[in-house]
Design a protein that fits this description.
single chain; two-stranded antiparallel sheet; Rossmann fold; globular; alpha/beta; six-stranded parallel sheet
């Protein structure tokens, strides 16, 4: 598959439709400005990213920047948008059984109910909210392994935030032999539960979804968007000058 290198990550040249048709096994990461900066600053995290089978552009800002390169990214595929379409695409696929890992206590259950009601069957078969601010204990991990095995899930959506979610998937996927498909999707579980709102379509098209998110969580997102974010454009300019 063709790819476009943005900073240090090779991002796949793939469309929504192509991804829906081909993604039936493996690991999906969705690089955005934050993850590109993390990979630029942390070579260990970059190594984790290289182990993904699919790396699709989550950010319309990154997609727009790629137009300045000899080859551009054909389409932005925000992870939360892809997951919603993925569920619809596999609505009648009885082998597609999803387990949600992430969000705060109770949010996963709400998201599960919303998805299953929309799809018309029990597509989401379980959810788990990991402890906040610490790693899972051995007992908690064993309980999760057992719960996923009992659920029969074949797809896992992990929403722990970057870089935690990517590292967790790579480090722990061997514990879950029934899971054939992994997605690292940030706040998607919250979006599906309705505890966070997606930006309206017109805001997304203007590449301003980040600003909509900022007003929802200003204290948490201010450093990401207004301190770290500008560094992306500096590094990208360096890439353009070198090329």
């Amino acid at each position: 598959m063709d790819s476009v290198k943005i900073l240090d990550i090779n991002i796949d040249c793939i469309t929504f439709h192509q991804l829906l048709e081909t993604f039936d096994r493996g690991i999906l990461f969705t690089p955005n400005v934050q993850s590109l900066l993390l990979a630029h600053d942390d070579s260990d995290f970059l190594d984790y990213y290289k182990k993904a089978d699919y790396r699709v552009c989550d950010s319309r800002v990154v997609k727009l920047c790629s137009r300045l390169l000899p080859k551009s990214i054909p389409e932005a595929i925000p992870g939360s948008s892809f997951f919603h379409r993925y569920c619809g695409y596999h609505a009648k696929d009885r082998d597609c059984l999803i387990y949600l890992i992430g969000a705060t206590e109770g949010v996963g259950s709400i998201a599960s109910d919303n998805i299953n009601k929309c799809i018309g069957r029990q597509m989401v078969v379980g959810s788990y909210s990991p402890p906040f601010g610490r790693a899972m204990t051995d007992e908690e991990m064993d309980n999760l392994v057992d719960d996923i095995a009992r659920s029969g899930a074949t797809v896992a959506v992990v929403g722990l935030g970057s870089p935690k979610q990517e590292k967790w998937i790579i480090d722990n996927r061997h514990r879950f032999p029934t899971i054939r498909l992994w997605m690292a999707l940030g706040a998607t579980i919250d979006f599906e539960a309705g505890t966070l709102k997606r930006a309206p379509a017109w805001i997304q098209k203007l590449c301003l979804e980040w600003l909509f998110r900022f007003f929802q969580e200003p204290r948490r997102l201010f450093p990401r968007y207004f301190i770290q974010g500008p560094r992306f454009f500096y590094y990208f300019l360096q890439q353009l000058l070198k090329s």
